[in-house]
Amino acid sequence: MRPQNCENCLNEEVMASNGYSSAAAVSTKQSKNNSPPCESGNSMPWFGMDIGGTLCKLVYFEPKYITKDEADAEVETLKNIRQYLTKNSAYGKTGHRDAHLQMDDVCIRGRRGTLHFIRFPTSEMGNFLALAKSKGMANLVTTVCATGGGAYKFEENFKKEVNLSLAKFDELDSLIRGMLYIEMTNPCECYYWTNPTDDEKCQKMPYDFSKPYPFLLVNIGSGVSILAVQGPNDYRRISGTSLGGGTFLGLCCLLTGCNTFEEAIELATSGDSTRVDKLVKDIYGGGYSRFGLPGDLVASSFYDVCSFGQMNSKDRRNTVTKEDLARATLVTITNNIGSITRMCALNEKIERVVFVGNFLRVNPISMKLLASAMDYWSKGTLKALFLEHEGYFGAVGCLLQFTGDIS
């Protein structure tokens, strides 16, 4: 059992085991000894935000033990904010705390406590700031760790509305740091799917990611970034695509009239994409054996609704449901991501692919499609891996890097 004062902090051990220098440990000790403004008793230094194009991810670290000085300095407003954040699972109409992802007894910057994971649509940033102001956060918080494009886009809003400074960190640095930290801290974080095409036999299985390098990291958010990771500080962005989770949601809203990602996924779950897509067997009557193309492979997305190219086939379109359209949209986006990822893996000669991002949240359909595609097209040499905390790594990563300097 580790000591409660966390002198041999798990953060230091995790960073060291993943190849980081001792700088993380030094910054942790300095932050404890020097007590920078961000960690004074009258502030809340335990926030990390990843403000994406579609979704804002917020992590809140709640210390397990507080010092006597902190207890004496803690005002009623701060107690109320802590209680509000940790005791509720919903905030307003669109904010949610993913209680099932909560991590207890973890170590962040030399302190033990609980990590809470909260999300809300980035379009609701105005309401978030109004809520923060109404709860008195503006009187207590001086700095929030932030990453993602929204850290730049909304910086003036934070300053103007709630007098908050944003300590901004690089999006991809934060993603990798947060991912490695959580994966090493949570023993059940990494998994893969067995028999992904067989609903009766398909299972989630744990995967030992203790020796990770090299691997591809595919971050599926509003768009997609693909990174080749050789070490914790050795990576490069090798590809990406604008067709990601934002594309799926946007097209589904246009095609089906749904309003949220959850609604779109629910529609897709009960839909049949083969009523929309044209398959290889629809053209050949079976598979195209010469090139190893199975009959149930999509030959052309959305083509089947136009009856051999006749886009004005109203009768054919009328047989397609909203659920079918949502499923076909999901399959189209997922297949495109899978195809690009496979090409990148071949070019980089990397056999492990880790898929992350909020596109995968409540979305086992895409995970199984990706797992099946990686396995089939690589003849079993490519392993598709997934992580439980999908889209929160950037928020955790920027929190880990913060040392009190916002220059």
Automatic annotation (TrEMBL):
<dbReference type="GO" id="GO:0005634">
    <property type="term" value="C:nucleus"/>
</dbReference>
<keyword id="KW-0067">ATP-binding</keyword>
<dbReference type="Pfam" id="PF03630">
    <property type="entry name" value="Fumble"/>
</dbReference>
<protein>
    <recommendedName>
        <fullName>pantothenate kinase</fullName>
        <ecNumber>2.7.1.33</ecNumber>
    </recommendedName>
</protein>
<dbReference type="GO" id="GO:0015937">
    <property type="term" value="P:coenzyme A biosynthetic process"/>
</dbReference>
<dbReference type="GO" id="GO:0005829">
    <property type="term" value="C:cytosol"/>
</dbReference>
<keyword id="KW-0173">Coenzyme A biosynthesis</keyword>
<dbReference type="GO" id="GO:0005524">
    <property type="term" value="F:ATP binding"/>
</dbReference>
<dbReference type="InterPro" id="IPR043129">
    <property type="entry name" value="ATPase_NBD"/>
</dbReference>
<comment type="pathway">
    <text>Cofactor biosynthesis; coenzyme A biosynthesis; CoA from (R)-pantothenate: step 1/5.</text>
</comment>
<keyword id="KW-0547">Nucleotide-binding</keyword>
<comment type="similarity">
    <text>Belongs to the type II pantothenate kinase family.</text>
</comment>
<dbReference type="GO" id="GO:0004594">
    <property type="term" value="F:pantothenate kinase activity"/>
</dbReference>
<keyword id="KW-0963">Cytoplasm</keyword>
<keyword id="KW-0418">Kinase</keyword>
<dbReference type="InterPro" id="IPR004567">
    <property type="entry name" value="Type_II_PanK"/>
</dbReference>
<keyword id="KW-0808">Transferase</keyword>
